[in-house]
Design brief:
The chain is an alpha/beta fold. The chain has two domains: about 20-140 and about 230-270, Bacterial extracellular solute-binding protein, family 7 (D-Maltodextrin-Binding Protein, domain 2); about 145-230 and about 285-320, 3-Layer(aba) Sandwich (D-Maltodextrin-Binding Protein, domain 2). Helices cover about 45% and strands about 15% of the residues. It has helices spanning about 1-15, 35-50, 70-75, 110-130, 170-175, 190-195, 205-210, 240-245, 245-280, 300-320, 325-340; strands at about 20-25, 55-60, 85, 135-140, 145-150, 165, 180-185, 200-205, 220, 230-235, 295. The strands form two sheets. The chain has a six-stranded mixed sheet with strand order 7-6-8-5-9-11, sandwiched between helices. Strand 1, helix 2 (about 35-50) and strand 2 form a beta-alpha-beta unit. Helix 4 runs antiparallel to helix 11 (about 325-340) and helix 5 packs across helix 10 (about 300-320). The longest helix has about 35 residues, at about 245-280. The protein starts with a helix and ends in a 6-residue tail after the last helix. The relative contact order is 0.15.
Length: about 350
């Protein structure tokens, strides 16, 4: 009998994956395309399959858990879950130097945005290790953060005097430099705020605004990337990361780049064109019914003015808050990639 039980135990052990890893993963906004098209399939299907059953994933999102967005990485660092992803700008209260990852108006195409991210990545990895006890796995984009308004505007100058929901701290500073009032409203509360006049305009990705129905409570779309690309950082608790064997670390790193990060970036530029078409009816809308927002053309003068405000006012102000060391590192990395230098 003992021999039978021993044989049964041995055969059961052989049938199960050795050293199976169970990962608890918290994704970004559940209703937005980045999560639905890339995050969820990667963590629930692609990675477990690539591991041959060695990695099991339990996936939820921070909004499904009713987490405050500013708490996502704090709780990750504490080991409440293993992996988390959300917009890096949500964490700048804990790490003001992180604002340098996603600067408005420096990248007008997906290729330019990825070059910025690649240049910033060593700094971002250090910030997450030191501030959030976490290892950075990926940095993926939301589409460029554009401007939705519930009143007529004809260009950048018309934002002066308006209350505008910003998508991050640097965007808020940028809006204030333009003469607007940057207002802090959570993404989920924006439709009500636009409808009630709490804000006149709001900044988010064109696709996010389409998915969330912002076109129902706004009339004009200004497609200038005032909020940058809202980079979404995927990170793993550092203690959990270091507990994995080298082969598992390599598998996760290679898979997350090839099957999540790269595809998300590859679709980013096309997504902007499609999303604007969906919001305005100017072109085909692959996501569903096209809406009728008024598309406001961005002039060369708008871009020149905005870039001047950014370089002369917003970036130097950030450098003061982040510190000279971070500003110098930014100049030598991101600044080199985009041809901008912060004067100090």
């Amino acid at each position: 009998m003992k021999r039978t039980l021993s044989l049964l135990a041995a055969s059961t052990a052989l049938a199960a994956p050795a050293f199976a890893e169970d990962l608890s993963v918290v994704g970004s906004w559940s209703g937005l395309p980045l999560h639905m098209q890339y995050e969820a399939p990667f963590w629930t299907e692609t990675l477990p399959a690539a591991s041959g059953g060695k990695i099991n994933v339990a996936l939820t999102t921070h909004n499904q858990m009713n987490l405050g967005v500013g708490d996502v990485y704090r709780l990750l660092g504490d080991g409440v879950y293993d992996v988390a992803m959300t917009v890096a700008d949500y964490a700048v209260a804990d790490a003001p130097e992180l604002e340098g990852l996603d600067v408005p108006l420096l990248a007008l195409t997906a290729d330019e945005a990825r070059a910025m991210v690649d240049a910033a990545r060593p700094m971002v990895s250090e910030i997450y290790a030191n501030r959030f006890n976490s290892h950075v796995l990926a940095i993926a984009p939301y589409p460029p953060q554009v401007v939705f308004c519930n009143a007529e505007i004809n260009g950048l100058d018309d934002l002066a005097g308006k209350k505008v929901r910003a998508s991050g701290r640097m965007t808020a500073k940028f809006l204030e430099a333009l003469g607007a009032e940057g207002v802090n409203v959570s993404f989920s509360e924006v439709p009500g705020a636009l409808q009630k006049g709490v804000v006149d305009c709001a900044v988010t990705g064109a696709g996010s605004g389409y998915s969330a129905g912002w076109w129902e409570v706004s009339t004009h779309l200004l497609p200038i990337p005032l909020g940058g690309w809202d980079s979404v950082v995927t990170a793993m608790n550092m203690d959990r990361w270091t507990s994995l064997d080298a082969d598992t670390q390599t598998l996760i790193s290679e898979q997350v780049k090839a099957e999540f990060e790269d595809p998300a970036w590859a679709s980013a530029q096309t997504a902007l064109v499609d999303d604007i078409a969906c919001l305005t009816g100017n072109g085909d809308c692959p996501a569903g019914d096209a809406r009728g927002m008024t598309l406001v053309e961005v002039s060369d003068a708008d871009f020149e003015k905005a870039r001047g405000v950014l370089v002369d006012e917003v970036l130097p102000e950030w450098a003061e808050r982040a510190g000279a060391d971070w500003a110098e590192r930014w100049n030598a990395s991101v600044g080199e990639a985009v041809g901008v230098k912060i004067g100090m």
